[in-house]
Amino acid sequence: MSAFVRVASLAELEEDTPKRVEVDGTPISLVRTEGEVFAINDICSHANVSLSEGEVEDCAIECWLHGSSFDLRTGKPSGLPATQPVPVYPVKIEGEGPDAAVLVSVTQES
Ligand code: FES
To answer: What is the CATH number of the domain that holds 10?
Structure first.
């Protein structure tokens, strides 16, 4: 069973500006870009820094510390120094317009 939890409204997410939220103690960077919303673990796989403080470009989030970029769809790094992916989580949008709810599940199983 996957439990989706409401983490924000669509209006709270600015395009290409990550927002850090927590679900069951898991830090998540929420990113609205290219017409979709993505949820990626907020901690870089290379060191313990917050990805939500990085920049978003081409559906990837760049770690501000050493510059590895993680694909928001898969969590895979596109280059060194990070070699391990960062977990990504399914996102659901419920409702219409700016009041639509953004939900994330960190339990993974479907
Ligand atoms: S801490 Fe993120 S790339 Fe080094």
So the answer is: 2.102.10.10
